[in-house]
Write a structure and sequence with these properties.
Shape: elongated
Largest sheet: 8 strands, mixed, barrel
Length: 644
Amino acid sequence: MSLRTFKTVIAVVIGAFLVAAVYISVLVVQRQGTLRQISLYNPAWEAGQATSEFMRLEHRLADFTNSGSGVGREEVELRYEILRGRAQILNEGSFKDLLQSNPEHRATLREFQDKIAAVQPLIDDLDQRPQGAQEALQILAPLEAPLSQLASAAHNHGAALVQKDQHELIRLHWAFSGIAASLILVGVILILLLDRHNRLLASAHQELHALAHQDALTGLPNRVVLRNQLEQALAGLKPQGRTIAVSYLDLDHFKDVNDSFGHETGDELLKAVAERLRDCIPAHEGQVRNLISRFGGDEFAILQTGISKPGESAALAARIVEAMRAPFSVNGQEIFIGTSIGIALAQGHVTPSQILKHADMALYHAKADGRGTFRFFEQEMDVQLQARRVLEVDLRKAATNGEFELFYQPQINISDNEIGGYEALLRWHHPERGLVPPAEFIPVIEDTGLIVPLGDWILEQACREAIKWPRNIHVAVNLSPVQFRSRGLVQSVSRALASSGLAPSRLELEITESVLLQDNEATVSMLHDLRRLGVRIAMDDFGTGYSSLSYLRSFPFDKIKIDQSFVREMSQRADCLAIVQSVANLGSSLGMPTVAEGIETEEQLRQIQAAGCTDAQGYYFGRPMPARDLVHTLAALKHAVKVA
């Protein structure tokens, strides 16, 4: 039964209880009225009294005629007045019901009253005319029988009314008893329902208590429990005594599991992770106490109390990292993940929020170090975090204040010895710091998600400026993995081309292997959608990943860009030169141009030309510059470089 239905039932029962109570009150009033009617109704007694007084008057008149009886005129008059009063009473009150039911009774009463009135002068004149008593007896004598009949009829009528009222009382009694019994039953039902309601509330309270203190998916204590335990542990710390540590865990590549296998598999994996944590983390290790909790998503936390040195936390973290490297079997799938751990020790007068924040910062640096490892919190991390937050605020202002600008670096076609295109590079003119190096702010833009709207601006700006260049020169724009995850990239490219009027073949989109790693099938599908727009696709930083060759097979790129790390060391390392030659030969066999990045000397240019590369890019040809300073021939570019 739902709570809403239960409330409806309770309302109906209470309503029935109130209706029954009101009806009982009505019955009580009716019963009291009937009893009052029975107690007041006496037509038989009134008729009998009238007959008795009639006979007493006759006796007194008879005795009055007998001179030796001692009855005087006053006593006769008294009896007469009493009888006349009785006659008047018969015309009033409940005796009227009897008169209305029978015409003969009305005639008898009328005759009775007439003869009473007729004898009055005789009685009043008894002192003067004693024989008037005999005359009065003669007038009244014919009424004896009718009055007796009237008294008998009144008795019968009264008996019938009493019997009827008795039946009504019996009916009211049973109705009253039935309603009373119903009220008792309703009360019992109400008590039972309220008892059930209390049990439901108690059960709901227990469930809410469990939900408030336990993670519903894994059964581990939740962040509320860990925070409460952390507060108690911090409050109980003693100077120079044992301390506490909080380890913050984040599963590596968990999002890939959700994307590849679905959230149901992801939930089952979280349950398996929780079980493995229980197995490798004992609740007690000597004086050390461990509490495992799930913070939400793929984040877990471990509270260690009673530790004497950081090495105990490091040993536990190393054990967890090693345990998480082993494969998980979930829904028939073998899944490999890992974990990164940030550890914070209670130092000084630290609050629960501060130690959790420190563990989170340490986790961030553990992930930045390549994942699958652990880091302890250091004070420098907080300084870096504050600087990063300031940078984030400034970046958000920069997007609205027009502080970003595109610079362009030329790409040289070696065989034609001319500029074939420009790579668009984002630059930030900070109002206080000046020109901020891209390596400082590009990762922050990607982490905060600003790269999506900013990437749309870059595409539109690059296309608007490229439309002003010679038709044989293209523009290359780097795409971030974050832009691919937004799933709106194809529409952004199409909108930039349409608004600028740039031919799609003059737009070249550069992607790195990290784009293909995040979701191969969906990403390749999006690349095909971009290709259908007519734009060119280049693989950037080729050779730095572990599966570049397989990606060349899954999608026919238009160009390969060799990472500058290989070009820079060609003169010192033979293996780098061999790699550049291999990539150039691979591109030639696949019909793809190869661009060597990072050319800074004439010797490097001769080496990549001898290796078979078709294009070159680097400071040797000129540094990136704004669109207003661009020249579009190699001769003019070399002249500008010499002048600079």
